[in-house]
Design a protein that fits this description.
By secondary structure, the protein is mainly alpha-helical. It has one domain: Ferritin (Up-down Bundle).
Length: about 190
């Protein structure tokens, strides 16, 4: 039995002991490291996949449960963007033999569960997207200087895209009714 196979099964056993809550992001990253994938490349790819899967699930939740047509429209657009980014990320990972997580990591899953429990889903969705997307921008910034030219190009070419998503989320946040209370000055205009 190869040493990497033994290590792989040891890692699987280790993660199986955490109450059945295996962190798919950590498992994918460990598998990549066992396959001699550069650690920074693996971190970028697995974290980007995790962040996009979380954003997709948040958007899908908002599409199905939002009380605001404005938020539903935004969430529908965001879900389509996340699907496109994930598809491109998965194609690159397949070319590079990089394993991506199949589901969001434990922390992302907890964030999604927290969002599901919010009373004001629309406001909570926008806040959660804003927080998540600040992380996404950081992840892509880190990816712009990895050692693989193709992965680096992917990060560089998509960094402006994720930055524009964050800008749109921040614009949504500024335009939500809770952040723009009606005042007498606004009413007279």
């Amino acid at each position: 039995m190869k040493a990497t196979t033994v290590i792989y099964f040891a890692i699987i056993s280790l993660f199986s002991c955490d109450g059945g809550k295996q962190d798919s992001v950590r498992l994918a990253h460990e598998e990549n490291l066992n396959s001699a994938i550069d650690e920074r490349i693996s971190e970028f790819m697995t974290q980007a996949a995790d962040a996009h899967m979380l954003a997709l699930q948040q958007a899908e939740l908002a599409v199905s449960k939002s009380s605001s047509p404005h938020v539903t429209e935004f969430a529908t657009w965001m879900a389509a963007e996340q699907k496109r980014l994930l598809q491109n990320l998965r194609m690159l990972a397949a070319q590079k033999n990089i394993i991506l997580p199949q589901a969001p990591g434990n922390r992302s899953a907890e964030n999604l569960e927290d969002l599901k429990e919010e009373e004001d889903l629309d406001k909570a969705f926008i806040n959660a997207m804003q927080k998540n997307y600040k992380d996404v921008v950081d992840i892509f910034e880190d990816g712009t200087d990895v050692r693989d030219e193709d992965v680096q190009l992917f990060a560089k070419s998509n960094l402006p895209v994720v930055e524009s998503h964050l800008a749109r989320i921040e614009e949504m946040e500024q335009n939500t009714p809770a952040n723009n209370p009606v005042t007498e000055d606004n009413e007279s205009n």
